[in-house]
Amino acid sequence: MLVLTLMTQVVSLIKSSLLASKYGVSASIDAYNLLLSVSVFIFSFFATGITTVLIPAYVKKEKDSVINSFLTFIYLAAVAVSVLFLMIRTPFITLISNGNLVFEQTAQSIISILVFSQFFNTFIGVTTAFLQVEGKYNIPKWATLVTNLLLVLSLFYLDADVYILAVVTGVVTIINAVIQFYYCVQYGMRFRFNFEFKSSGFRTMMQIYLPTVFSTGLYQFNLLIDSFLSSSAGEGNVTILSHANAIVGMLNTLVVGNIMIMAYPKLSESLLSSLKEGVERFKNISYFISIMGYVILILFFVLGRDVLEFLILRGNFQQDDFEVYYNCVTLYILGFPINMLRDLVYRFFYAKGDTKSTFYNSIVVSLLNFVLSVALTQIIGFYGIVLGTLLSSILSFMMIQWRFSKQFETLGYHFYMRQGLLFALSAGLIFLLYLLEVVYPVTVLGHLFEAIAAMLVYIVSLSSLGYDLRKYIKSMFE
Questions:
Q1: What is the pLDDT of residues 29-40, one digit of tens each?
Q2: 478: which residues sit within 8 A by CB, 6+ positions away?
Q3: Where exactly are the transmembrane stretches of this chain (predicted)?
Q4: What are the backbone dihedrals phi and psi of residue 120, each rounded to the nearest 5 degrees, phi first?
Q5: Is 253:401 a contact under the CB 8 Å cutoff?
């Protein structure tokens, strides 16, 4: 499973690189990225919630009529939203185009294609849930990998036309849904339209579904607001922000996602034994996560520019655009350790059966992110969007950590001192590496040696300060 995830992310990275080099930064590709964000925003409401509700329903062997009624409602709602959105597409496009005729013309030509194709993500939510219950976890991953490969191959050979890009994006999304649906049918899934909307089973499923939809919507709403703000900040900014989010999203999937998959079950087991044991494991995992986050930061400050130049700075993606892109990625990466720790705290609440605290925290932070991004954009321009996200991430962690200490128990002065020492050590090493680069700039090969030396110094420093890496790693598995 890990190998498939890694392969999929590598292919996604290649896709992002090809899009940057082939299409560059322009009003037409801005239109594509912004409308894709809008389409994803609309249908992510349905797709994510479907998986959350259907997995327990399939496990409990809920009646087919109840499940089919739920799916009937979702599909009808998705169709209604699609039709409504397409009916208002002209005034909507005029609103977001800022008077750019190229943007408007491109958006008008591709909006129906993107909305129709993203509608199929609701089907993918159903098929993923069914296949997971059947124990066929790798089929959705294989389908996604194959269709991403098809998109990458298409980018190699097709003309740099945004309309063609939208068509290919739509086709591979539909192919993904068809592949997964085929396997679902093979394993016994059946669907018929059903309208038992008054049944108790249907009402129970909707009671689970609606909060999930709202929670998912907050996150997607923030992404959408960022896209709108970047569009108003100038031509090409939507595309630059999209590429920056892509690289950070890849790191989140590879690092944060896989760490949480390993850590969450063990944390849950410890909490079942006692709160004290759970808190102790939480501390050990926290140290490990912090160290991993700072390692990523250190490596990025040494090798990040070289790697990103290799991936992005080619073809139609110009040097000036790259500088803005690099600065955006840097700001996002600065929040990486904080975001990892926040996710772990969230998992602690989930393991205790408390979803309200994290939900309320998400609402407050979403509002803060919106206010900060809008305010900072007025002051410092485009970078205010990313800086607003960074600041809201820090505030998010501080608030959920305060709630943790209030609701469960304080982690103790020693824990915070050790975390502060980790921060000071990492920040000091990054500062020294920065000074070294200013005084003695080196080539890519020199940066590679610097990265190796920095990791050796970091590991030795951790050991000398009493950080037990073996103990922290064991807490993830034993």
A1: 888 888 888 888
A2: 266
A3: 36-59, 66-88, 108-130, 164-185, 206-225, 245-264, 285-304, 324-346, 358-376, 382-400, 421-442, 448-467
A4: -70, -10
A5: no
DSSP per residue, 366-431:
HHHHHHHHHHHHHHHTTHHHHHHHHHHHHHHHHHHHHHHHHHT----HHHHHHHHHHHHHHHHHHH
pTM of the model: 0.80
- On the 0-12 / 13-18 / 19+ scale of CB atoms within 10 A, 345 is buried
Where do we find the tokens 């997607």?
Answer: 220
Residue 137 phi, psi dihedral angles, 5° rounding: -65, -30
- The H or E element containing residue 221 is helix 200-232
Neighbours of 458 (CB within 10 A): 18
The domain spans of the chain are 26-224, 236-478
CB 175 within 8 A of CB 150: yes
Question: What is the pLDDT, as a whole number, of residue 190?
Answer: 75
Amino acid at 463: S
The token pair at 232 is 């108003």
CA atoms of 387 and 332, how far apart (whole Å) = 8
Listed in order, strand segments (DSSP E) in 218-293 are none
Whole-number percent of the chain with pLDDT over 70: 92
Residues 6+ apart with CB under 8 A from 127: 140, 177, 180, 181, 183, 184, 189
DSSP states along 74-119: HHHHHHHHHHHHHHTHHHHHHHHHTT-HHHHHHHHHHHHHHHHHHH
User: Which pair of structure tokens corresponds to residue 162?
Assistant: 């945004």
Q: Is 135 exposed, middle or buried (0-12, 13-18, 19+ CB in 10 A)?
A: exposed
Helices 2-23/138-157 angle, 10° precision: 20
Specify whether the CB–CB gap between 110 and 29 falls below 8 A.
no
Nearest residue to 155 (alpha-carbon basis) of 317, 20, 33, 352: 20
**What is the model's pLDDT at position 43?**
79
In angstroms, the first-to-last Cα distance of the chain is 20
